[in-house]
Design brief:
two-stranded antiparallel sheet; alpha/beta; 181 residues
Amino acid sequence: ILKSQGYETAFFQGSHKDTGGVGPFAQRLGFQSSYGKGDISERKLPSNSWGVHDDDLYDFVLKKSKETTGPFLFAINTNSTHDTVLPPGEKRLVSRDAPHANHVNVMHYADGALRRFIEKYSEDRERLSNTIFVLLADHTAEVHGSNLQEYGIPFLMFGDGVPVVKVPAAVSQRDVAPTLL
């Protein structure tokens, strides 16, 4: 729908662009371009076992967003949380002997990388005023607790001029597109 309205559309992921068939699937859904770790030549961090750490992926997305001349829809599939390795020099939130320390520390890194991305993007106030961020997890398999926690998907949309609404119901990934539209 957005592509037909003149939006440039691209799908980004920190792993290979065809990992699990995700890139080709995104293109079948209508995304014009698909990018993966092989397309990201400028990196500050070494790879993890999946590919590019989130900071380097976000920097690539920022670069691509600045090359666009009109409206765009970019989908980003990060992968730092698919591994348990922190980038070199990244500060640990909890000590190594804490329960689930590796997962907690990597989640803390990923949250920080997302914050840095949004802060860098926000430096361009004009562009930010026309941007809606949609954040959701693809799965929460590493959440420890009840089965409900394991399958709950965090989901958030925000942007300038977007009213704050808390939906008191269970939602799923299939609710993203209609809600955005």
